[in-house]
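For homework, think about our next protein:
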Amino acid sequence: MAEKLIRQDIERRLVIKSWKDEAFRKQLLEDPKVAIEQEFGGKIPEDVEIVVHEETPKERHLVLCAKPELVPEPADVLGQDDEQSFNCITISSVETISCCEK
């Protein structure tokens, strides 16, 4: 069974390792699928593309998550502020991901 990890934890682990290990950082930039598969084990599906961007002190990147297929009905998030609504959607459908297929 694939290891279930929170997306932020996966990203944090990759960033920290890239800071500590220059060879890993280079591989993550050049061939992210291989680097991630080796770090977490398993195989990322062929139809999934991984793109890694390296920020600079003067350039920042914002990643927009793909819209989940099953967005709660407005009634499901009524009375919640935008952040609570976003958390309701992302926790269930975006943030918990299978890192790799084993």
